[in-house]
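Last lecture ended with a question: if I hand you only a sequence, what can you say about the shape of the protein? Today we answer it with a concrete record. The protein is Urease accessory protein. Below, first the input exactly as provided, then the predicted structure, then a couple of comments.
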Amino acid sequence: MQPSPHTISLLLADARLPSGGHAQSSGVEPALLAGMPVADVPAFLRARARTTGMVDAGTAVLARHAALDCITMAPIERAWAARTPSRAIREASKDLGRGLLRLSGRIWPEVRSSLDDLHESPPRPLVLGAIAAHAGIDAESLVRLTVYDDMACAVAALLKLEPGDPAHGVAMVLEACSSIEPQVAAVSSITSAHQIPAASAPQSEAWSEAHALTTRRLFRA
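The predicted structure:
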């Protein structure tokens, strides 16, 4: 029996999913190492959700659309890369995409065929979109899943970097995810590359680039 798309969404949002998320901090470690106060993490997460999160969510929605209609993915990846200027962030996304693709190969082997036109490891949002298409996850759920996964990864890393009350971390995730609700309907309706949000976060991107050069870190990005 085919699992419910809702169950699959829960599976993909689970921090215990063996896709490599445990090695990422969603930009939190770079920000803290650069001197951002821990008290500013909630604001950082809200900003990331509305910038990097929306770019990834829009890309995932378009990748889902492409997989359903058997459209080539290469232009979508180029549009995502143009909106993700930091090489460090792009490489982190490809690490996560590689982990998701390896996992999907065991559960949804057909996902790989949707990404065959991509020569390198596809980034996380393209793989998420392809999985959503094959697993029956609707576009609005995919937007929320894409942002939630990034926020949850950030808070899980924060609790290792700056141990605190896990309940406070849950509240931060919910607050950041709630901040993008007004955009969910519009982003879930994307059908062409030029509609993908292009919000940027230059300071966070600079922190990620500096972080990639240091050896004193717990997380890859």
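Comments.
1. The chain has one domain: 22-206.
2. The chain is about 65% helix and 0% strand.
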